[in-house]
Amino acid sequence: MEKNELLNPINIGNWHLKSKVVMAPMTRSFADNNTGTVGKDIVTYYRKRAKDGIGLIITEGINPSLRGKGTFGVPGLYTNSQVDAWQKVTEAVHEEGGKIVAQLWHVGRLTHRELTGGFPPQSPSIIKADGLVHRLRKPYETPEEMSKKDVKEVIQEYALAARNAIKAGFDGVEIHGAHGYLIDQFISEVTNKRTDEYGGDILNRLLFMKEVLNAVINEVGKERTIIRFSEIKDDIPDYKWANPEENIKAFIQVFKEIGIQIIHPSTNNFTKKMTDDMTFHQLVRKYWEGIIIGVGNLNTKIASEAIKEGTIDLAAFGRPLLANPDFINKIKEGQPIKSYQAAIDLKYLN
């Protein structure tokens, strides 16, 4: 039987990955809600995946500041105790021969002052989100419009969190620029009505993302920085880009200007066509020669074929890895992948 492409190792920069499987970032909410520190259960959780042979682990979203917190139990990387706690995780992953990067996640307007130490949400413009805050089940609050001073402060918070990630032993950093959170709020014409250099056309709206990436790269290096971006928005389910190809070209122009090498285009459905004849990842590949992490309700067959044809280089799996800490072993042995069950797999750390 032909070996599944996912099982092949790959070298990316200085990373030697044992497989082409990536653990997608997934909110777990098992950190101490008051301190933002992770415990032994999280150490064991990530160790299992590294031991199984996952090539690259991307952590759950980690807040670069208390004000970036969007729900209960989200970990941080802005205090010494948080750094010390994450160090135990990275040591465990490295002991098993794995690689792990910290995803930095600021939710922007998608929060409530009950979660952020009394501060109102931040956003590029004063536009309130529809819906309820995750798990808090209260309506989103009207955000404060970020001043230029606020913008610079948040960029420095990302830089500090990236510096702390390296102190904690992470192999790199992923910036969450997708799904309608703070960076994506700057990028979207729906949430950004600014008239300064951060507003206006798409390249102006991408400026905040560009400045965050440059600040993070300054701390960790281009080869260890990943950006996640998307059309989809968690709070605006029907949102679509008016011109997908032009948007993708604008993103990639910025990525090339920065010199980043690994990108993570995110969608809920990997095989869904974004234009008449191309999926999101195929459109990205049309303009990008670097490393692409594919994601979007993948199965092992679709992922393997997409790697073979050159659309993506790595394949990220989320829910299957929650339900199957032995995911790689099951692929090797040809065993069935256990179905994800939210009532079990979200509630407990398997």
UniProtKB/TrEMBL annotation:
EC annotation from Swiss-Prot or TrEMBL: 1.3.1.-
Gene3D superfamilies given in the database record: Aldolase class I
Keyword Hydrolase part of the UniProt annotation: no
Alphabetic keyword roster: Oxidoreductase
Protein's UniProt keywords contain Oxidoreductase: yes
NADH:flavin oxidoreductase/NADH oxidase N-terminal domain residues: 6-336
Pfam families linked: Oxidored_FMN
Signal peptide: none
Enzyme class, spelled out: oxidoreductase
Gene Ontology MF term list: oxidoreductase activity
PANTHER family, A to Z: NADH OXIDOREDUCTASE-RELATED, NADPH DEHYDROGENASE 2-RELATED
Protein name: N-ethylmaleimide reductase
Organism for this UniProt entry: Sutcliffiella rhizosphaerae
